[in-house]
Specification:
The structure is a homodimer. Chain A is built from 10 helices and 14 strands. Chain A is an alpha/beta fold. The first copy, chain A, has a 7-stranded mixed beta sheet with strand order 6-8-9-4-3-10-11, sandwiched between helices. A two-stranded parallel sheet of chain A has the order 1-2. A two-stranded antiparallel ribbon of chain A has the order 5-7. The first copy, chain A, starts with a helix and ends with a strand. Chains A, B: GO terms for molecular function: oxidoreductase activity, acting on the aldehyde or oxo group of donors, NAD or NADP as acceptor.
Chain lengths: ~325, ~325
Amino acid sequence: LVGRAVQRAVHKHELPEGVFSLLFGSGREVGQALVADPRIKAVGFTGSRAGGTALMKTAQNRPEPIPVYAEMSSINPVFLLPEALKARGAALGEAFIGSLTMGAGQFCTNPGLVIAIEGPELDAFVAAAGETIKGAAAQTMLTPGIFEAYESGVSGFSASDKATEVARGQRGEGPNQCQAGLFTARAADFLADEALQAEIFGSTSLVVKCADLDEVKRVAEHLEGQLTATLQMDDADVDVARQLLPILERRAGRVMANGWPTGVEVCDAMVHGGPYPATSDSRTTSVGTAAIHRFLRPVCYQSLPQALLPEALRDGNPASVSRLVDGKREA
Amino acid sequence: LVGRAVQRAVHKHELPEGVFSLLFGSGREVGQALVADPRIKAVGFTGSRAGGTALMKTAQNRPEPIPVYAEMSSINPVFLLPEALKARGAALGEAFIGSLTMGAGQFCTNPGLVIAIEGPELDAFVAAAGETIKGAAAQTMLTPGIFEAYESGVSGFSASDKATEVARGQRGEGPNQCQAGLFTARAADFLADEALQAEIFGSTSLVVKCADLDEVKRVAEHLEGQLTATLQMDDADVDVARQLLPILERRAGRVMANGWPTGVEVCDAMVHGGPYPATSDSRTTSVGTAAIHRFLRPVCYQSLPQALLPEALRDGNPASVSRLVDGKREA
């Protein structure tokens, strides 16, 4: 239905035929056939880690390997630093649930992990978040497959003796409805148990309680690649933040302070990417003006006659592009 | 020996320890162990296609796959267009052998293939090139392995009933000396026989004789990815060049006119890369100032306090870098 609407818009605005295409298929058959076709020269993908790595393998095993830009998995850790937690723990708890439940938690930048030092301030944060999540309405997820994966992930948390349930959101009545969830775990258990570290795609998050700052750092160092890492911090937290930053900027494509990772501005400076497995290729962004670089490769035209050069490269700069000439930017 | 000299220069100029490292090993053991080590995050490599693809596989099979920039194989086709061939065939023949024999043919950009329409003008080119190559001195190659691969490649040409020997250079007297070679083949045979299309790393080149311009185009379309593609052309060849250009710019990282592919200027605009198998990753250059991008990934710092930002990103631009602000370049 959406595909047909886009197709109509393409015709109405006289955009070239083929600017939008849509192929439906269940499982990986259609995707793998496309990636294996020699006419395809690069791939962009958003989906599960298993699906993305399968496409990466297909692309690498072609006679001519091609780039795959797969956005696969991210739990987007949020670090609550001590002074911020003390000053505004309850408010942070409410805002956190707002970010967690947006779009049934189906944002790649959904905050799936909160990390902080244990104590009464963190208890206040968890209590406020728990109260808020109880009021969170159930929301329909995109596909039955996504819903089933979500349910299975949450069941794993419920069944684990290492994770403690704080609260659940409202139960859904229709099919494929995501019931929000909030759990806590001790940092030592989190570090020891890979099941607690896996992404649950949907509105469920885990609060990791650390004994001290050293344990916060150990958790940060233990994390896989992420799209985002967030610091909730006040001025007095700058020194603590400075200790975490070298760890976080090696693990995420976007490091932010005092916001929530969901919700991005699509602009020139944006980065929507991150180290593996957040994406298969951390050298690029999948959104924003710089995203086009994923599908380009440089070509040098050496000593070609003006008549054969692309307009943007001709003498006198007829296309008025911003250019480097002998390493200096043209005015 | 060279490694020790570089090491001394590093100390003398007080460069950081570790800025230069050298590990020796035969076979692929050392290379594969390095690529498999989780502390390694990206790989640059120059060598054979078999070696490069082995490293690509190792890198992809790591728990955390990493980028591999392998420069592997290129035969750098040179196209002699009709008017240029008519006006200066003999001079082109001599200059060609100069490029072919430079450094015992051990440049990644060595012209291993010449493509032109058959006729008396091409015969004159081949005759001049043949005379010149006879005087070419034998030169010692870098390693016994490279020499053996060269000898085996040339033997394949000699044994083939599809390739005709024009002339050989002087025979060497010392070990591992490369004897230059020039062969011709008909385009139809070249297209049908993969052995004729393989790279011979060293001073041997093949002239492919085409029946007409359509056959020149078919040969161009049939080529694998290359570092360079060269047009020898006069003003009256512009229309022919315009027909070839869309094919060549899809197959090479550097398209040049009226030069020889060996010899590059290391500058901001240079591209030393090309479609697979010239390199494993055509999105980058391995030489020139842009080469550093191969080892970078973008990180977005969103709303971070000034004190935590890298100097280059702080308000007032204290590091005086050329920056985009809201999509406009700062003066």
